[in-house]
Design brief:
The structure holds 2 protein chains of 2 kinds. Chain A is built from 11 helices and 12 strands. Chain A starts with a helix and ends with a helix. The two termini of chain B are 45 Å apart. The chains are: A alpha+beta, B alpha+beta.
């Protein structure tokens, strides 16, 4: 019996040696055979539990998930939104394993101040939300530790976040309400942010989500990395809730005035009539209409830039339609001067030619301007 | 038929037809370019997926070979010493499972009898021949085999190799396997794809008897398929329907979710025996190409409208203003001259008419003078 036991011990030792050489296990873990349901527990008495857990090797995979519990507001002009979110981080710290009987519901749970106190005693990933403005208005913690050493923290915060706003496709634009989580101090070789199916399922928007003027889309969870010094990289995760603008609201306030103001330069064409080599209405009268149109468009663009500065400061359908208004006014001014005042076509090619040119312009210019306006809207919708 | 109406009508129709043709052709060309780019994207998505699965197979066989090459393991297996074999291999397996996603490790006796499931030691001894073709093949040919198979606990990507004892005699086989899900998660992390793995319910129920009923809930049901793993369940639910999964060869779909167009590649999944047991869906946003294609269509159409209108304007003003209107005026003058007889005023061309009209007027004036001279001579003779 003793010989058999010795032989078994030698076999185990040899196997451990081979496995260690193969890089599959460390000698310390290979020398003992843990029970099937328990992994490589390695709590060393006196070990500082606030140090990074290396029991499963590095990097420590921290699973990230985030729930948008509510979005209180979205200010597209400032590029900020206020949201209440639940950030869930999950990782395994083998030093925190304990017998399953100790967990009342299969885990040990700590809430609020108890969770904060407990969190101070263990290692937690040093994450930072880089696009959060200031300190959160409210913050709550929950900590769960499972028998296998899995640690799960949920942090509920109400805070304001910066987010990029691109109104290039206004009013058919979709804006990302994004939260950027970055690991600092530990490089991606030490701490990595990952996610699995259950994290993606957690990462969503609350069912009763309401944000006036916007409809919620899906929430995407993306893994990224941030460059550091000397080739270092830091793990990052970006959670993006896409919201789509309800386009109908902007039709009455922005697009109807923009298309209506385009009628002013057309009036300068439609209000006149060719008579022989001249015109029925004097040029200065129609020039006044055009100048009035210029002021109307200036007033309209000023109103839009006051109400929607982000739209006025970027290239989008609205700014292009304003530009189209100015182009239409410029064309009607050229017609007023070249045709009505100086009658250039009649001087160059006769009265008949001028009459035909005027008749053509009376429908072609409004038609082309309106077609361009519609095209600009369709381009933003494409 | 009047030239005044029919000539411009023919010219305008010709212009419209030519411009429309050019616009349609250029639209088709740009659409084909976008489609070719998307086709390349589909091919790349398929290649990345297949390469990931091949890599998983290679990693599984590499891990299995490492363990199988350890003399003590070979010796314990040859001696059918289950306890020692478990003691030797379980630590390595647990580490491989925790760190690298290996999900199964199993020793078999020929032709396909389970000897030891390292991942589930209490369960052994049953005949796997009805569903583990890869094991039968390895034990029959004594050659390494790799592939995917449905097992009692789910679906694995296996690397299976024959085992020999110290004397080189075949003693059975050993395999290690990866789960499917982590492979798809990895692809999402690396490439930003969204993936779903759909398995025929009938095949899954027949073999994967250890799966709980939770897997077969309505949320996971897509027609006669069960969603076994997805990286974004809500998105895949919008992009793929049960009917889409009834395919026998690769399918490429263009779908939309929340206004965002997606390219969805459906790749049939085959087990080691070559039986199709499911479909893998790979989705990627095609918003950039679809948007560029749509914008190109709008701009090309607008350009066609501009070209047609300008050409029509040129035709109308030139034909009517420089030819028809002067000719009409000249005709009126000629009519008045004919009515006035000898007392008619001299015939002159309209002001600023083209030289051909002037020439015509000059010839008419010669005719008038000649007629007037003849009348005078006749009167003299009488």
């Amino acid at each position: 019996m003793r010989r058999k036991g010795l032989r078994s011990a030698l076999v185990v030792a040899a196997a451990s040696h081979w496995l260690a050489l193969a890089g599959l296990v460390t000698p310390a873990t290979a020398s003992s055979v843990p029970p099937p349901t328990v992994g490589v527990a390695a709590t060393v008495p006196g070990e500082d539990l606030r140090s990074i857990p290396t029991g499963r090797g590095l990097p420590v995979g921290v699973r990230t998930a985030l729930l948008f519990a509510a979005v209180e507001s979205f200010d597209e002009n400032a590029g900020t939104f206020e949201a209440t979110t639940d950030l869930r981080l999950t990782w395994v710290d083998p030093r925190l394993r304990y017998p399953a009987e100790e967990g009342l519901r299969g885990y040990k749970e700590y809430r609020h101040s108890a969770a904060e106190a407990e969190i101070k005693k263990i290692w937690t990933p040093r994450t930072r939300i880089v696009n959060r403005l200031g300190e959160p208005a409210a913050r709550e913690w929950r900590l769960r530790i499972y028998p296998d050493g899995t640690v799960e923290t949920i942090e509920r915060t109400s805070a304001t976040y910066e987010t990029p706003v691109d109104v290039g496709r206004f009013p058919f634009d979709r804006q990302p309400l994004q939260i950027e989580i970055v690991v600092h101090e530990d490089t991606a070789e030490s701490v990595d942010l990952t996610h699995r199916r259950e994290d993606v399922e957690f990462t969503r928007v609350a069912r009763d989500f309401v944000l006036e003027g916007w409809s919620p889309g899906l929430v995407a969870l993306r893994k990224e990395s941030i460059r550091g010094w000397n080739g270092d990289r830091y793990a990052a995760a970006v959670v993006v809730l896409e919201v789509g603008r309800v386009a109908g609201i902007s039709v009455a306030t922005i697009f109807i005035p923009l298309f209506a103001s385009m009628l002013i330069p057309f009036m300068a064409i439609w209000m006149n009539r060719a008579e022989g080599d001249g015109f029925a209405v004097e040029a200065f009268e129609l020039a006044n209409v055009v100048i009035g149109g210029v002021f109307a468009v200036i007033a309209l663009s000023f109103t839009i830039s006051s109400a929607y500065p982000v739209i006025a400061s970027a290239d989008n359908t609205v700014t292009r339609l304003i530009a189209l208004n100015y182009v239409a006014l410029a064309i009607s001014l050229v017609i007023t001067v070249a045709l009505y005042r100086y009658r250039l076509p009649a001087r160059l090619l006769g009265a008949h030619f001028q009459e035909e040119v005027f008749a053509f312009m009376a429908w072609a210019i409004p038609f082309l301007c309106l077609a361009t306006g519609v095209a600009l809207v369709l381009v933003s919708a494409a | 038929m009047t030239f005044r109406r029919s000539a411009p009508a023919i010219l305008v129709t010709t212009v419209v037809v030519v411009v429309a043709l050019v616009s349609v052709v250029s639209n088709v060309i740009s659409h084909r370019m976008a489609a070719a780019f998307e086709d390349a994207q589909f091919s790349l998505m398929g290649e990345i997926l297949r390469s990931q699965l091949r890599r998983a197979e290679s990693r599984a066989i590499a891990s299995a070979e490492l363990v199988a090459a350890i003399p003590s393991v070979r010796e314990a297996f040859a001696a059918r010493d289950r306890e020692t074999l478990l003691a030797l291999t379980q630590p390595a397996f647990l580490i491989q499972k925790e760190k690298y996603g290996i999900s199964q490790a199993q020793f078999h006796l020929a032709p396909a009898v389970s000897f030891l499931r390292v991942h589930n030691p209490p369960k052994f001894g049953e005949d796997l021949a009805s569903y583990r073709n890869i094991v039968i093949e390895v034990n029959r040919t004594q050659a390494i085999r790799k592939g995917t198979e449905i097992t009692t606990s789910g679906i694995g990507i296996f690397g299976t190799l024959p085992m020999v004892d110290a004397a080189g005699t075949a003693s059975g086989s050993f395999e290690m396997a990866y789960d499917f899900g982590p492979q798809l998660d990895e692809l999402k992390n690396e490439y930003g794809f969204e993936l779903g793995f759909f398995v025929e319910e009938k095949a899954l129920r027949a073999t994967a008897t250890s799966l709980t009923e939770e897997v077969y809930n309505d949320q996971n049901r897509f027609g006669n398929h069960i969603s076994f793993h997805t990286t974004h369940a809500a998105l895949l639910r919008e992009l793929v329907t049960g009917g889409d999964l009834d395919i026998r060869e690769e399918a490429r779909l263009l779908r939309a979710s929340g206004g965002v167009p997606y390219g969805v590649l459906l790749e049939p999944a085959y087990d080691y025996a070559g039986r199709q047991y499911g479909v893998i869906a790979v989705a990627r946003s095609f918003a950039a190409t679809r948007s560029a294609d749509g914008q190109a269509k709008v701009w090309q159409t607008l350009l066609g409208i501009f070209a047609a209108v300008v050409l029509i304007g040129g035709v109308l003003t030139v034909v009517r203003g420089l030819l028809l209107r002067p000719l009409t005026a000249l005709g009126a003058t000629l009519g008045a001259a004919a009515d006035a007889g000898a007392a008619a005023d001299p015939i002159v061309a309209p002001e600023a008419a083209c030289s051909e009209v002037f020439e015509l007027a000059a010839q008419a004036e010669r005719l008038r003078r000649s007629a007037a001279g003849g009348n005078v001579a006749g009167a003299d003779r009488s």
